[in-house]
Design goal:
Layout lengths: L4 H30 L3 E7 L5 E8 L5 H30 L18 H6 L9 H9 L13 H13 L7 E11 L4 E4 L7 E2 L6 E7 L6 H6 L1 E11 L1 H6 L9 H19 L2
Antiparallel strand pairs: 1-2, 2-6, 3-5, 3-7, 4-6
């Protein structure tokens, strides 16, 4: 049997590197928050008696967070492809295996697409292909939008073709107190968070105030402000389905690393 130990060792190193990148992202984000990168401003609302309380960004989210996230995606996707390469060596008995450049870990959201791409995996025997078919996104419950490999593949695809940040800042929770005669209504989305628009500012509350009160008067009547910031990837946060959508970015990343590691253990040649 052909030796595949080197290929598998590289796969495990990739998972370890992914975990390091996740830790680096956390450290960098905490260091960014320590600089107090955001403040607040009041701007006139659509009617004379309303004001918008906005988050104002003074230090933008570090772009290196998005760069690290892109590398994290690459390492996990490459680990899966490396596993398939090792399986191809085992099944074919050749190193490199036949059609080596077309060997990859298949990730599809329909059985039809999986079958259409079977010819690219000619180095794998039918038993191996059948096992790979069992972990395909179209078999996931409740759907592929809660499936780890689908998201690794989809986010890697998006990351290769985007020009802006993959990682964005979000307000995860907000508490603001208002003293009479003003009242306020907080604005958070259905996930209990709102994405921070670092260019235009982000409205977190709409304030109703009697005519005649100026900006300084209203500022003096706003008390007990507590705003928590997190980072996330908008596509992953908004499009994923439960139980994945209920997790923070860090937990989703950690679970993805564990899924890839378990997959390596399951398919180990």
């Amino acid at each position: 049997m052909a030796d595949v130990s080197d290929a598998l060792t590289t796969c495990h190193h990739r998972i370890d590197r992914a975990a390091e990148l996740r830790a680096e992202m956390s450290q960098e984000w905490n260091a960014h928050l320590a600089t107090k990168p955001r403040g607040f401003e009041l701007v006139h609302g659509p009617t004379p008696d309303t004001w918008e309380m906005r988050i104002k960004t003074m230090r933008p989210t570090p772009r290196s967070l998005s760069t690290r996230f892109g590398e994290w995606l690459y390492q996990l996707r490459a680990a899966l492809d490396g596993l398939t390469y090792a399986l191809a060596i085992r099944d074919s008995g050749e190193d490199p295996p036949p059609k080596a450049s077309s060997v990859y870990f298949p990730i599809f959201d329909s059985a039809k697409k999986f079958q259409q791409n079977r010819p690219r995996l000619t180095a794998l025997n039918d038993e191996t292909v059948a096992e790979l078919e069992l972990v395909q996104p179209y078999r996931a419950a409740p759907d592929h939008l809660s499936n780890v490999p689908w998201w690794i593949n989809e986010l890697a695809r998006l990351d290769r073709h985007r020009s802006g940040h993959a990682v964005r800042a979000f307000v995860s929770s907000c508490r603001v107190g208002f003293r009479e005669p003003i009242t306020g209504e907080l604005r958070l989305d259905g996930n209990g968070a709102v994405e921070v628009n670092e260019e235009r500012g982000t409205t977190i509350a709409v304030i109703t105030a009697p005519p005649g009160l100026g900006r300084r008067d209203i500022q003096d009547l706003i008390v007990d402000i507590d705003v928590q910031n997190i980072i996330d990837v908008p596509e992953w946060r908004h499009r994923s389905t439960p139980p994945m959508s209920r997790s923070t970015l860090d937990l989703r990343m950690k679970y993805s690393e564990a899924w890839v590691a378990n997959t390596l253990a399951h398919f180990r040649p």
